[in-house]
């Protein structure tokens, strides 16, 4: 029994890694094309910080999209396969039917959405000092 659980976890891990690895060039192309790169603020309050991070300007941000889209695609895929083939090995890889999975997955998606909006606001220089959500506001969203 324990060997089967370890095998399922290992299989899902390898599959999610391969899917994310395959999607990385597509995502980075999209992020570069639409100029979704890191914006370094030229802040008078922290000129050393700005100078040290100057070379990071333009580095694509929002890479978390790759992680949570991969997880959601696999979760929904194995849920549908479970409905179609409940007794097969593929059907046994479903983890959405377990109630213990829904709360962590929901919080994962909520955190991902908060991070996505924060990164997008940072790229567009919206928010306090043009850097997305303020730290206290972001912590408040995560603690809420």
Task: Note the beta-strand portion.
Answer: under 5%
What portion of residues is helical? 55-70%
N-C termini distance: 38 Å
Count of strand segments: 0
Largest pleated sheet: none
Structural class: mainly alpha
User: Helical stretch count?
Assistant: 5
The number of domains is 1
Order of helices and strands: HHHHH
Let me know the average pLDDT.
82
Report low-confidence residues grouped into runs of 5 or more: none
Indicate the radius of gyration in whole angstroms.
Answer: 19 Å
Query: How would you sum up the global shape?
Result: elongated
Describe this protein's structure:
The protein is mainly α and 144 residues long. It has one domain (2-143). Helices cover 65% and strands 0% of the residues. The protein has five helices and no strands. The radius of gyration is 19 Å and the shape is elongated. It starts with a helix and ends with a helix.
